[in-house]
Amino acid sequence: MKALILAALATVAISVTAAFAAANVVPTSKAGDGAGVISGYTVSNLKHNVNGSNPRNIDSVTFDLDTAPAGGATMKIKLVAAGSTWYSCTNSGVSLTCDTTSPQATVAASDELRVVVVP
Fold it and tell me: Is residue 110 part of a domain?
């Protein structure tokens, strides 16, 4: 008798579980994976523009890229390898200008030019 009751309870439990599982509704969705080539820019006509009154200070950096950045692109430079300051740039076509006065960049501290342009 106990075996019959246990079998009946197991059947009910399985039926209830199946009923709950059958009630799930999952909306249609998409997933994907892909790859594309990421190429860099070529920098030319680089110029560090020093302050007219204090030539130890770099007031801006200008340079050209081989192609114009996409509209709305993030364009930044970094001048000190161990530092954390990134300077924002603006562009007119392929020509970029980066204001380096806040905080003030100096010739003595500058040891790299790292250019980041992300569409």
Answer: yes
